[in-house]
Amino acid sequence: MKLQGISGARGIGAGTVYVYTQEEICIDRTPIEEAAVAGELHKLDDAMQTTIDQLTEVKAKAAATMGDAEAAIFEAHIMIAQDPSLLTSIRQAVESEHKSAAEATEGVIESFAAMFSAMDDPYMRERGADIRDIGDRLLRNLLGMTPRGLAHLSGQIILVADDLTPSDTASLDATVVQGIVTASGGPTSHAAIMARTLAIPAVMGVGDSSALRTGEQAVVNGTDGIVLTELSDDEFAQYQEEGTRYRRVLQTMKESANLPAKTKDGHDVLLFGNIGKADDAAKARELGAEGIGLFRTEFLYMERDELPNEEVQYEAYKACAEAMDGRPVIIRTMDIGGDKELKCLALPKEMNPFLGYRAIRICLAEPDMFKTQLKALLRAGVHGQVHIMYPMISSLDEVRRANALLQEAKDELAAAGVAFNGDTPVGIMVETPAAAMIADILAKEVDFFSIGTNDLCQYTLAVDRMNERIGQLYEPLHPAVLRLIKQVIDASHKEGKLTGMCGEMAGDPMATMILLGLGLDEFSMSATAIPMIKAVLRSVTVDECRHMAAKALTLGSAKEIAAYVTRIMTEKGIEL
């Protein structure tokens, strides 16, 4: 039997299925009496302290098994749990609405999580799961239930779940868990990110996973996004051998992570990292990143009751610039959508937020807020090679209006006698078909392009890649997408500008040779993907890649292109 899903982490894993389920949380919604309020508040305080203690322990375990960068998510969880606004909101619901502590917690957590889950950026949208993870832990402590966890697993396991939270994955042992399968989620879910960090093959979004039963043998093909069962002993043994070989290849790649990103014929390629916080920059450097191709700034807005001021932002951008020690740091201006229930910014509800009031559209409508961020970025440029990048551009007018506000920010800093870098490079994300089609015009107005393939693919193909029912239609190697990418690169090169890529496609080894052949100058990706992409680049010549790209552009479908890439990689002995 074969289940089709979405690739979350590459590789082959074979083992025995373990279906992970949790005792359901049941909440009594009967209003409490006034006399019971004090007792409920005491229970809440005790449960919150237990939650913080548990998260501190989980953070220490995650640091020991996965490293400080991965453990940082639990530091963020601790900060959220200690956020006075969270506890205050729960207490108010108990005191004024006479809800039990559990019911009040459930409602407040869901409200907080909804702010993230409604995000247009898939990465940010998945962070709603982090908030719900904290709420789940707090509720279980309130109700005297056992916390989530997978530390008890042993043997060679294929882990199957509806979804996995950070608390679930913190205790995963990569020598035990050979593969992960989730019914929901996609490549930017926490489960997928952790699977890639731990090099565990993973398939996400299979939909109904009830066909997989605890105790049966299964194979996870994370590369192709499929799960296989009902295999013969010989077939199962063959997949086990493939999985072992894949892990050996990955280890070799990691050991050579700091070798130059240089093709066989001596062509240097820029490999950068995507990060969400300044603290992530050090991990990117460890894995071979030569710069930061995308610093998402949304967390600065989402973690606060009030808009982050210039100093708060300046310190964050400065920290990242200093961590990269003179290497390029491309910082994307605020990319938040129009249906966000942000505590710091009132935004209207919308029928279609993916096509609505978001990103640069909000910034241009809120010039004071935008200039605050621009000033912080300009000031941070004194401490390193900071680049500013505008998201969601679809017209020349947007670029010119944004640059006019940037000039105002410079003028105001100069008038105040504040140090800043007046020559800070400015670029745009090319993530709408409109921007791709007028790339020749836009290239005259900016210093660089960075192609955001997540949205470019989504808008070009009219496919929501987080929708499990149509996830298979999301095809980055689709001929239409490749032709748009080529058009953008050609337009930038004609004006003597560089084009990078910061979407998931940049970290997909199936696309590496084609993208280099199309002329892509810089690849930016999750840091854990860098060793694999570097290994591909060191195995090829530029001429080979150009020939491959030209051939790919003549093919009629993503499947034909993928088959062609697979054949070439096999012929060249590239094992991925």
UniProtKB/TrEMBL annotation:
Q: Which cofactor does it need?
A: Mg(2+)
Q: Which domain of life is it from?
A: Bacteria
GO molecular function list: phosphoenolpyruvate-protein phosphotransferase activity
| Pfam families xref list | PEP-utilisers_N (PF05524), PEP-utilizers (PF00391), PEP-utilizers_C (PF02896)
Query: Can you state which reaction this protein catalyses?
Result: L-histidyl-[protein] + phosphoenolpyruvate = N(pros)-phospho-L-histidyl-[protein] + pyruvate
**Family matches, as SUPFAM superfamilies:** Enzyme I of the PEP:sugar phosphotransferase system HPr-binding (sub)domain (SSF47831), Phosphoenolpyruvate/pyruvate domain (SSF51621), Phosphohistidine domain (SSF52009)
Domain PEP-utilising enzyme C-terminal: from-to ranges = 253-540
Give the EC number(s) under which this enzyme is classified. 2.7.3.9
- Per UniProt, the enzyme's principal EC class comes to transferase
Q: Which InterPro entries match?
A: PEP-util_enz_mobile_dom (IPR008279), PEP-utilizing_PTS_enzyme (IPR050499), PEP_util_AS (IPR018274), PEP_util_C (IPR000121), PEP_util_CS (IPR023151), Phosphohistidine_dom_sf (IPR036637), PTS_EI (IPR024692), PTS_EI-like (IPR006318)
Domain PEP-utilising enzyme mobile intervals: 157-225
Tell me the keywords, alphabetical order: Coiled coil, Cytoplasm, Kinase, Magnesium, Metal-binding, Phosphotransferase system, Sugar transport, Transferase, Transport
Where do the coiled-coil regions begin and end?
Answer: 392-419
Compartments it resides in: Cytoplasm
Q: Which residues form the Phosphotransferase system enzyme I N-terminal domain?
A: 4-127
Which PANTHER family does the entry link to?
PHOSPHOENOLPYRUVATE-PROTEIN PHOSPHOTRANSFERASE
- What does this gene product do? General (non sugar-specific) component of the phosphoenolpyruvate-dependent sugar phosphotransferase system (sugar PTS). This major carbohydrate active-transport system catalyzes the phosphorylation of incoming sugar substrates concomitantly with their translocation across the cell membrane. Enzyme I transfers the phosphoryl group from phosphoenolpyruvate (PEP) to the phosphoryl carrier protein (HPr).
Q: Into which family does the record put it?
A: Belongs to the PEP-utilizing enzyme family.
What is the recorded name of this protein?
Phosphoenolpyruvate-protein phosphotransferase
